[in-house]
Design a protein that fits this description.
InterPro entries: OHCU_decarboxylase, OHCU_decarboxylase_sf. This protein has ten helices and no strands. The chain has 222 residues and is mainly α. It has one domain: UraD-like (Orthogonal Bundle), CATH 1.10.3330. The longest helix has 24 residues. It is globular and about 55 Å long.
C-alpha cells in the first residue's frame, strides 16, 4: 500500500470514530499527546461540541480557555507533553517540522549542529532546576534551534553555556508555585496556545476528524 493510500485509510478511520474519540484525536494533533486530553480537556469540551462550538477556531479558543482555568499542577503536567527544545527522537511529525527536523523536501533547513544540541540539553536541564516542575516551552515560529538557545540563555541570565554550567546549576531556585513560577507557567501555556493556533493554520481539515462544515473554517481542507 502506497503513502497516499495509507493517508486515505488513516483519514477514513478517524472519520469513523465517535464524537468523543474524534475530539480527543483532534486535540492531540493540536496540543501533542497528553493523558489530560482524554481525562480532563475533552470531557470539559464535549458538552458544547456542535452547539457553542461549531468550527475549529471556536474549538481551539474553548480548549485554550479550559486549559487556562486549570489548577497550576494540571497546567504544568499538560505543557510537559510538548517535547523539549532540541529533542530529536520520538517527535510527532508536527513537532519535528516545528523544530526544523523535517525531511529536506518539507523544510529546507540546515541540520542542527551537535554543539547547539548539547547547549540546548544543558539549558533545558538548568531551566528545569531553576523552575522545578516546569519544562521550557516556546513558540518556535520558524526560528532555528540556535536562536531558541539564545532565548533560553536570556531567560536564565547567562551569556554562554559550557562555562556557566556550574553557575546556572548553583543559581537560586524559583519557589514552586511562587509568583515568578506561576508567571513562567502562564507564559508557557500561552505559547502552547500559539503553537496550537499555528498548527491549526497548517493541518488539512481532513486530518482533524470532526465533521465541521468547511465554510466555518478560515483555512479550507486541502
Amino acid at each position: 500500500m502506497d503513502a497516499a493510500s495509507n493517508t486515505k485509510t488513516d483519514t477514513s478511520r478517524r472519520h469513523n470514530l465517535d464524537p468523543y474519540d474524534s475530539l480527543v484525536a483532534a486535540l492531540t494533533l493540536l496540543f501533542e499527546h497528553s493523558p489530560l486530553i482524554g481525562s480532563h480537556l475533552a470531557p470539559q469540551i464535549i458538552p458544547s461540541l456542535y452547539t457553542e462550538i461549531n468550527d475549529y477556531n471556536a474549538l481551539l479558543s474553548r480548549a485554550i480557555q479550559v486549559i487556562g482555568s486549570w489548577p497550576v499542577q494540571l497546567k504544568a503536567t499538560f505543557i510537559a507533553a510538548h517535547p523539549r527544545i532540541g529533542e530529536t527522537k520520538n517527535l510527532s511529525a508536527l513537532s519535528a517540522a516545528e523544530q526544523q527536523q523535517s525531511p529536506p523536501s518539507q523544510a529546507q533547513q540546515p541540520k542542527t549542529s551537535p554543539e547547539v544540541l548539547e547547549a540546548l540539553r544543558i539549558l533545558n536541564e538548568c531551566y528545569e532546576i531553576k523552575y522545578q516542575g516546569l519544562v521550557y516551552i516556546t513558540f518556535v515560529n520558524g526560528r532555528s534551534r540556535s536562536e531558541v538557545a539564545e532565548e533560553m540563555r536570556l531567560k536564565l541570565g547567562v551569556e554562554g553555556v559550557q562555562g556557566d554550567q556550574d553557575k546556572i546549576r548553583a543559581a537560586e531556585k524559583v519557589g514552586k508555585e511562587s509568583e515568578e513560577w506561576i508567571q513562567e507557567l502562564d507564559r508557557a501555556v500561552r505559547d502552547v496556545g500559539l503553537i496550537a493556533s499555528s498548527r491549526l493554520d497548517k493541518i488539512p481539515r481532513t486530518s482533524l476528524a470532526l465533521p465541521f462544515t468547511r465554510s466555518h473554517d478560515r483555512v479550507s481542507a486541502e
